[in-house]
Amino acid sequence: MADLDSKRQRLLDLLASYESCGVAFSAGVDSTVLAKAAQLALGDAAVAVTGVSASLAEGEAQAARQLAEQIGIRHVVIQTGELERAEYVRNESDRCFHCKNELYTQMEGLAERLEVAVLVNGANVDDLSDYRPGMQAAAEHRVQSPMAECGLTKQEVRQLAAEWQLPVWNKPATPCLSSRIAYGEQVTPERLAMIDRAEKYLRGLGLITVRVRYHKGDLARVEVPPEAIARLCAEPIRTELAAKFKALGFRFVSLDLEGFRSGSLNDLIAPEMVRPLV
Q: Is residue 217 left, alpha or beta, with left meaning phi > 0 and alpha meaning psi from -120 to 50?
Protein backbone atom coordinates (compact mmCIF):
# COMPACT_ATOMS: atom_id res chain seq x y z
CA MET A 1 0.00 0.00 0.00
CA ALA A 2 2.90 2.33 0.67
CA ASP A 3 3.94 2.04 -2.97
CA LEU A 4 0.38 2.79 -4.10
CA ASP A 5 0.21 5.78 -1.76
CA SER A 6 3.42 7.09 -3.32
CA LYS A 7 2.14 6.60 -6.86
CA ARG A 8 -1.19 8.27 -6.01
CA GLN A 9 0.57 11.33 -4.63
CA ARG A 10 2.91 11.44 -7.63
CA LEU A 11 -0.13 11.32 -9.94
CA LEU A 12 -1.86 14.17 -8.11
CA ASP A 13 1.34 16.24 -8.13
CA LEU A 14 1.89 15.61 -11.84
CA LEU A 15 -1.67 16.62 -12.72
CA ALA A 16 -1.41 19.73 -10.55
CA SER A 17 1.73 20.72 -12.47
CA TYR A 18 -0.32 20.92 -15.69
CA GLU A 19 -2.38 23.78 -14.18
CA SER A 20 -5.33 22.64 -16.33
CA CYS A 21 -6.19 19.52 -18.34
CA GLY A 22 -8.76 17.80 -20.51
CA VAL A 23 -9.37 14.12 -19.77
CA ALA A 24 -10.40 11.69 -22.52
CA PHE A 25 -13.25 10.18 -20.52
CA SER A 26 -14.95 6.94 -21.61
CA ALA A 27 -16.42 5.96 -18.21
CA GLY A 28 -14.13 2.93 -18.03
CA VAL A 29 -12.08 2.24 -14.92
CA ASP A 30 -8.90 3.94 -16.13
CA SER A 31 -10.41 7.18 -17.41
CA THR A 32 -12.72 7.42 -14.38
CA VAL A 33 -9.81 7.17 -11.95
CA LEU A 34 -7.89 9.73 -13.98
CA ALA A 35 -10.89 12.08 -14.02
CA LYS A 36 -11.19 11.77 -10.24
CA ALA A 37 -7.48 12.44 -9.77
CA ALA A 38 -7.67 15.45 -12.12
CA GLN A 39 -10.60 16.88 -10.19
CA LEU A 40 -8.78 16.42 -6.88
CA ALA A 41 -5.62 18.02 -8.25
CA LEU A 42 -7.10 20.80 -10.36
CA GLY A 43 -10.74 21.35 -9.38
CA ASP A 44 -12.56 23.40 -12.00
CA ALA A 45 -9.40 23.57 -14.12
CA ALA A 46 -10.02 19.94 -15.11
CA VAL A 47 -12.65 18.88 -17.64
CA ALA A 48 -13.73 15.42 -18.81
CA VAL A 49 -14.50 14.98 -22.51
CA THR A 50 -16.59 12.03 -23.73
CA GLY A 51 -16.78 11.15 -27.40
CA VAL A 52 -20.08 9.63 -28.53
CA SER A 53 -20.74 7.71 -31.75
CA ALA A 54 -22.37 4.51 -33.00
CA SER A 55 -19.33 2.58 -31.74
CA LEU A 56 -20.23 3.35 -28.10
CA ALA A 57 -22.27 0.65 -26.37
CA GLU A 58 -25.76 1.57 -25.21
CA GLY A 59 -25.76 3.12 -21.75
CA GLU A 60 -22.10 4.16 -21.71
CA ALA A 61 -22.78 7.83 -22.49
CA GLN A 62 -25.29 8.02 -19.64
CA ALA A 63 -22.81 6.23 -17.35
CA ALA A 64 -20.21 8.87 -18.22
CA ARG A 65 -22.61 11.69 -17.32
CA GLN A 66 -23.46 10.10 -13.98
CA LEU A 67 -19.84 9.39 -13.09
CA ALA A 68 -18.75 12.91 -13.98
CA GLU A 69 -21.51 14.28 -11.76
CA GLN A 70 -20.45 12.01 -8.90
CA ILE A 71 -16.81 13.02 -9.27
CA GLY A 72 -17.69 16.69 -9.56
CA ILE A 73 -15.67 17.30 -12.69
CA ARG A 74 -16.79 19.52 -15.57
CA HIS A 75 -18.08 17.31 -18.38
CA VAL A 76 -18.40 17.86 -22.11
CA VAL A 77 -19.95 15.36 -24.55
CA ILE A 78 -18.97 15.56 -28.20
CA GLN A 79 -20.07 13.67 -31.31
CA THR A 80 -17.07 12.04 -32.95
CA GLY A 81 -17.00 11.24 -36.65
CA GLU A 82 -14.71 8.23 -36.94
CA LEU A 83 -17.35 6.41 -39.01
CA GLU A 84 -16.95 9.14 -41.62
CA ARG A 85 -13.27 8.24 -42.01
CA ALA A 86 -12.62 5.69 -44.76
CA GLU A 87 -9.50 4.45 -42.96
CA TYR A 88 -11.59 3.62 -39.90
CA VAL A 89 -14.42 1.96 -41.83
CA ARG A 90 -11.91 -0.28 -43.67
CA ASN A 91 -11.07 -1.75 -40.26
CA GLU A 92 -7.45 -2.66 -40.77
CA SER A 93 -5.09 -3.36 -37.88
CA ASP A 94 -4.63 0.38 -37.21
CA ARG A 95 -8.35 1.11 -36.78
CA CYS A 96 -7.83 2.34 -33.21
CA PHE A 97 -5.33 4.89 -34.47
CA HIS A 98 -7.98 6.52 -36.65
CA CYS A 99 -10.53 6.44 -33.83
CA LYS A 100 -8.21 8.12 -31.33
CA ASN A 101 -6.92 10.49 -33.99
CA GLU A 102 -10.50 11.70 -34.50
CA LEU A 103 -11.09 12.06 -30.75
CA TYR A 104 -7.84 13.87 -30.03
CA THR A 105 -8.25 16.15 -33.06
CA GLN A 106 -11.63 17.25 -31.72
CA MET A 107 -10.26 17.64 -28.20
CA GLU A 108 -7.47 19.84 -29.51
CA GLY A 109 -10.08 22.02 -31.18
CA LEU A 110 -11.92 22.35 -27.87
CA ALA A 111 -8.84 23.02 -25.77
CA GLU A 112 -8.84 26.80 -26.13
CA ARG A 113 -12.57 27.15 -25.48
CA LEU A 114 -12.35 24.83 -22.46
CA GLU A 115 -9.22 26.64 -21.25
CA VAL A 116 -7.12 23.49 -20.83
CA ALA A 117 -3.38 23.39 -21.39
CA VAL A 118 -2.78 19.61 -21.49
CA LEU A 119 -4.77 16.68 -22.87
CA VAL A 120 -4.51 13.38 -20.98
CA ASN A 121 -5.67 9.79 -21.38
CA GLY A 122 -6.10 6.90 -18.95
CA ALA A 123 -3.38 4.56 -20.24
CA ASN A 124 -1.61 2.61 -17.51
CA VAL A 125 1.67 0.70 -17.46
CA ASP A 126 0.04 -2.57 -18.60
CA ASP A 127 -1.23 -0.87 -21.75
CA LEU A 128 2.30 -0.16 -22.88
CA SER A 129 3.07 -3.86 -23.42
CA ASP A 130 0.04 -4.51 -25.65
CA TYR A 131 -0.60 -3.67 -29.31
CA ARG A 132 -2.42 -0.35 -29.03
CA PRO A 133 -2.22 1.84 -32.16
CA GLY A 134 -4.28 4.45 -30.30
CA MET A 135 -1.12 5.25 -28.34
CA GLN A 136 0.48 6.37 -31.61
CA ALA A 137 -2.35 8.88 -32.07
CA ALA A 138 -1.76 10.09 -28.51
CA ALA A 139 1.91 10.63 -29.27
CA GLU A 140 1.14 12.55 -32.47
CA HIS A 141 -1.29 14.83 -30.61
CA ARG A 142 0.98 15.20 -27.56
CA VAL A 143 -1.63 13.63 -25.30
CA GLN A 144 -0.07 12.71 -21.95
CA SER A 145 -0.55 9.42 -20.08
CA PRO A 146 0.03 10.47 -16.45
CA MET A 147 -0.97 7.16 -14.85
CA ALA A 148 1.49 5.23 -17.01
CA GLU A 149 4.11 7.88 -16.30
CA CYS A 150 3.58 7.35 -12.58
CA GLY A 151 3.96 3.59 -12.92
CA LEU A 152 0.36 2.64 -12.10
CA THR A 153 -0.69 -0.85 -13.18
CA LYS A 154 -4.24 -1.91 -14.04
CA GLN A 155 -4.61 -3.62 -10.67
CA GLU A 156 -3.43 -0.49 -8.87
CA VAL A 157 -5.86 1.65 -10.87
CA ARG A 158 -8.69 -0.59 -9.69
CA GLN A 159 -7.40 -0.28 -6.12
CA LEU A 160 -7.53 3.50 -6.41
CA ALA A 161 -11.06 3.31 -7.81
CA ALA A 162 -12.15 1.27 -4.79
CA GLU A 163 -10.35 3.60 -2.39
CA TRP A 164 -12.09 6.60 -3.94
CA GLN A 165 -15.43 4.72 -3.84
CA LEU A 166 -15.90 4.86 -7.57
CA PRO A 167 -18.58 2.37 -8.67
CA VAL A 168 -16.51 1.25 -11.67
CA TRP A 169 -13.75 -0.29 -9.54
CA ASN A 170 -14.76 -3.80 -10.68
CA LYS A 171 -16.28 -2.87 -14.05
CA PRO A 172 -15.16 -5.20 -16.86
CA ALA A 173 -13.20 -3.65 -19.71
CA THR A 174 -15.59 -2.02 -22.17
CA PRO A 175 -13.72 -1.31 -25.42
CA CYS A 176 -15.68 0.23 -28.28
CA LEU A 177 -18.05 -1.97 -30.26
CA SER A 178 -15.84 -1.74 -33.35
CA SER A 179 -13.24 -3.83 -31.54
CA ARG A 180 -15.61 -6.81 -31.93
CA ILE A 181 -15.44 -6.72 -35.74
CA ALA A 182 -12.75 -8.90 -37.32
CA TYR A 183 -10.05 -6.94 -39.11
CA GLY A 184 -10.84 -6.53 -42.80
CA GLU A 185 -14.61 -6.54 -42.27
CA GLN A 186 -16.04 -3.05 -42.66
CA VAL A 187 -17.30 -1.17 -39.63
CA THR A 188 -20.89 -0.09 -40.25
CA PRO A 189 -23.60 1.32 -37.96
CA GLU A 190 -25.74 -1.73 -38.74
CA ARG A 191 -23.09 -4.20 -37.61
CA LEU A 192 -22.34 -2.16 -34.49
CA ALA A 193 -26.05 -2.18 -33.59
CA MET A 194 -26.23 -5.96 -34.10
CA ILE A 195 -23.30 -6.49 -31.75
CA ASP A 196 -24.61 -4.07 -29.14
CA ARG A 197 -28.04 -5.72 -29.03
CA ALA A 198 -26.56 -9.22 -28.97
CA GLU A 199 -24.33 -8.38 -26.01
CA LYS A 200 -27.23 -6.71 -24.25
CA TYR A 201 -29.21 -9.95 -24.65
CA LEU A 202 -26.35 -11.97 -23.12
CA ARG A 203 -26.05 -9.58 -20.18
CA GLY A 204 -29.80 -10.03 -19.71
CA LEU A 205 -29.02 -13.68 -19.00
CA GLY A 206 -26.97 -12.56 -16.01
CA LEU A 207 -23.57 -12.67 -17.71
CA ILE A 208 -21.21 -9.81 -16.94
CA THR A 209 -18.20 -10.33 -19.19
CA VAL A 210 -19.31 -11.04 -22.76
CA ARG A 211 -18.07 -10.41 -26.28
CA VAL A 212 -19.87 -10.97 -29.56
CA ARG A 213 -17.22 -11.03 -32.28
CA TYR A 214 -18.36 -10.32 -35.83
CA HIS A 215 -16.73 -12.39 -38.59
CA LYS A 216 -17.17 -12.58 -42.37
CA GLY A 217 -20.56 -13.79 -43.53
CA ASP A 218 -22.49 -12.31 -40.59
CA LEU A 219 -21.06 -14.96 -38.25
CA ALA A 220 -21.24 -14.27 -34.51
CA ARG A 221 -18.53 -15.80 -32.32
CA VAL A 222 -19.68 -15.59 -28.72
CA GLU A 223 -17.11 -15.37 -25.94
CA VAL A 224 -18.18 -15.83 -22.32
CA PRO A 225 -16.27 -17.02 -19.24
CA PRO A 226 -15.52 -20.78 -19.53
CA GLU A 227 -17.80 -21.62 -16.61
CA ALA A 228 -20.78 -20.14 -18.53
CA ILE A 229 -20.28 -22.15 -21.73
CA ALA A 230 -22.26 -25.21 -20.64
CA ARG A 231 -25.18 -23.00 -19.63
CA LEU A 232 -25.42 -21.42 -23.09
CA CYS A 233 -25.31 -24.87 -24.70
CA ALA A 234 -28.20 -26.17 -22.61
CA GLU A 235 -31.83 -25.94 -23.66
CA PRO A 236 -33.82 -23.79 -23.89
CA ILE A 237 -31.11 -21.10 -23.86
CA ARG A 238 -29.22 -22.55 -26.86
CA THR A 239 -32.27 -22.43 -29.13
CA GLU A 240 -33.43 -19.05 -27.86
CA LEU A 241 -29.96 -17.52 -28.24
CA ALA A 242 -29.61 -18.72 -31.83
CA ALA A 243 -33.06 -17.42 -32.73
CA LYS A 244 -32.39 -14.04 -31.09
CA PHE A 245 -29.07 -13.55 -32.87
CA LYS A 246 -30.56 -14.47 -36.25
CA ALA A 247 -33.39 -12.02 -35.67
CA LEU A 248 -30.74 -9.36 -35.09
CA GLY A 249 -29.14 -10.08 -38.49
CA PHE A 250 -26.52 -12.76 -37.83
CA ARG A 251 -26.63 -15.71 -40.24
CA PHE A 252 -24.50 -18.05 -38.15
CA VAL A 253 -24.00 -18.28 -34.37
CA SER A 254 -20.96 -19.97 -32.80
CA LEU A 255 -19.76 -20.35 -29.22
CA ASP A 256 -16.02 -20.05 -28.63
CA LEU A 257 -14.97 -23.05 -26.52
CA GLU A 258 -11.86 -21.24 -25.27
CA GLY A 259 -14.06 -18.71 -23.52
CA PHE A 260 -13.55 -14.98 -23.16
CA ARG A 261 -10.11 -13.62 -24.09
CA SER A 262 -9.49 -9.90 -24.17
CA GLY A 263 -8.26 -8.80 -27.59
CA SER A 264 -8.70 -12.22 -29.19
CA LEU A 265 -9.14 -10.65 -32.63
CA ASN A 266 -5.49 -9.54 -32.45
CA ASP A 267 -4.65 -13.20 -33.15
CA LEU A 268 -5.74 -12.49 -36.74
CA ILE A 269 -3.11 -9.79 -37.26
CA ALA A 270 -0.13 -10.91 -39.33
CA PRO A 271 3.16 -9.23 -38.36
CA GLU A 272 3.33 -7.38 -41.66
CA MET A 273 -0.09 -5.82 -40.96
CA VAL A 274 1.00 -4.05 -37.80
CA ARG A 275 1.40 -0.28 -38.04
CA PRO A 276 4.79 0.66 -36.53
CA LEU A 277 4.47 2.64 -33.30
CA VAL A 278 7.14 5.31 -33.01
A: left
Q: Which of 207, 208, 271, 221 lies closest to 250, judged by CA? A: 221
What is the mean pLDDT of each successive set of 10 residues along the chain, which is 278 residues long? Answer: 90 98 97 98 98 94 96 97 96 95 96 94 89 88 97 97 96 92 97 98 96 98 98 97 98 97 68 45
Q: Are 168 and 67 within 8 A, CB to CB?
A: yes
Residue type, 159: Q
d(CA 265, CA 8): 34
Bond before 236 cis per omega within 30 degrees: yes
Instruction: Give the end-to-end CA distance of the chain in Å, rounded to a whole number.
Output: 34
Non-local (6+) Cβ contacts of 74 within 8 A are 44, 46, 47, 48, 68, 114
Q: Which domains, ranges and CATH numbers included, belong to the chain? A: 2-163 (3.40.50.620), 177-268 (3.30.300)
Nearest to 49 by CA among 18, 80, 19: 80
- The amino acid sitting at 191 is R
